[in-house]
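Page 37, continued from 36.
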């Protein structure tokens, strides 16, 4: 048992610096941004191998220690040699840290320098004082350094991980913000392109989107739903791309056949937007915004709460903008007339909740206008 315990003692005296070598390799390559393993750390590996060889042959040649016939431990004539190998490795560690100190955080480099210096001091003291102090100062110091260094390294890793997480979160937030801005700019540009087909409806899609979002907010819907309502309203008329230009810009009343062509635009819009699988609400807004609450709308004739919420909101905002804008066949309706039409459509053409919200918004706008 004595032979095994002493062998392990000398082995770990070498193995601890060996582990530190490879920690430094990882540290300088990942944190110090070195491309290759520092040359001096390569030499440390060779010194470790040489130290292990000497450790293996030591019991046979009585270099480090020997056990007599009574199983008593004695130091060998070359006992100090066992400290030379770890001393050289740790000394080279110190040189590497000094050489590459500018590649590490200053506080970390200083702490690393001090931790590595302690075993060097202990080994020098061991060489000159081993006759007076039979205990192994180097072994004790190395063990203490490992504990302190492990605690410090663990704290450093946790701090770095937290900083990395914060940087990743900032990057993700900025990326999502830019993605949202790009999505909004793209949809607005497409909405403007759609409205450009009809000289009488310039800005219609954006106005409907703004009204729709106001209605959604007044209905206390989640912010995510309010945003979805806005973008769906921007593209609710995208299907008009498939309607002939002469029908869209016709002055006067449409024929039955022409009106039938106009009524196809919700289906066209649905077909165009259904390919955007990450935003299915866009296709819903395009397809169902002409459905009526009483089931007499088009293209599917669905009714009530079977109509998606987004489409029910857009239907009110779309009708409001249509009544308050210039059309090829009429002038804008008065505010009072618009309000009467909305009231008449409650429960038949429009969802009662959203129609009443639109009327309330009109009243608030009128009060503000009168006050100013």
């Amino acid at each position: 048992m004595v032979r095994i315990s002493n062998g392990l003692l000398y082995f770990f005296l070498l193995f601890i610096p060996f582990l530190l070598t490879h920690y430094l390799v990882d540290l300088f390559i990942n944190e110090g941004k070195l491309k290759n393993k520092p040359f001096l750390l390569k030499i440390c590996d060779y010194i470790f191998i040489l130290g292990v060889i000497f450790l293996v042959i030591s019991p046979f040649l009585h270099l480090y220690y020997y056990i007599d016939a009574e199983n008593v431990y004695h130091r060998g004539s070359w006992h100090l040699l066992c400290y030379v190998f770890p001393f050289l490795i740790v000394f080279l560690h110190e040189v590497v840290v000094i050489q590459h100190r500018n590649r590490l955080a200053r506080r970390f480099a200083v702490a690393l320098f001090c931790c590595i210096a302690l075993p060097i001091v202990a080994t020098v003291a061991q060489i000159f004082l081993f006759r007076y102090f039979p205990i192994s100062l180097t072994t004790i110091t190395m063990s203490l350094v490992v504990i302190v260094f492990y605690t410090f390294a663990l704290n450093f890793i946790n701090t770095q991980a937290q900083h990395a997480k914060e940087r990743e979160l900032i990057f993700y937030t900025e990326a999502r913000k830019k993605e949202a801005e790009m999505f909004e700019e793209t949809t607005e540009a497409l909405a403007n392109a759609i409205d450009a087909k009809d000289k009488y409806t310039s800005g219609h899609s954006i106005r409907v989107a703004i009204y729709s979002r106001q209605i959604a907010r007044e209905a206390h819907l989640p912010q995510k739903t309010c945003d979805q309502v806005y973008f769906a309203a921007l593209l609710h008329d995208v299907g008009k791309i498939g309607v002939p230009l002469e029908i869209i810009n016709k002055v006067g009343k449409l024929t039955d056949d022409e009106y039938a062509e106009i009524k196809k635009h919700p289906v066209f819009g649905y077909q165009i937007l259904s390919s955007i699988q990450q935003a299915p609400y866009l296709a819903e807004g395009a397809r169902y915004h002409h459905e009526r609450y009483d089931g007499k709308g088009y293209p599917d004739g669905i009714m009530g709460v079977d109509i998606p919420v987004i489409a029910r909101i857009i239907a009110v905002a779309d009708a409001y903008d249509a009544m308050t804008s210039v059309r090829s066949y009429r002038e804008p309706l008065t505010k009072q007339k618009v309000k009467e039409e909305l009231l008449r459509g409650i429960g038949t053409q429009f969802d009662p909740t959203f129609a009443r919200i639109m009327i309330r918004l009109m009243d608030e706008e009128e009060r503000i206008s009168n006050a100013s």
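The chain is about 70% helix and 0% strand. Flag for discussion at group meeting. The chain has two domains: 2-170, 196-371.
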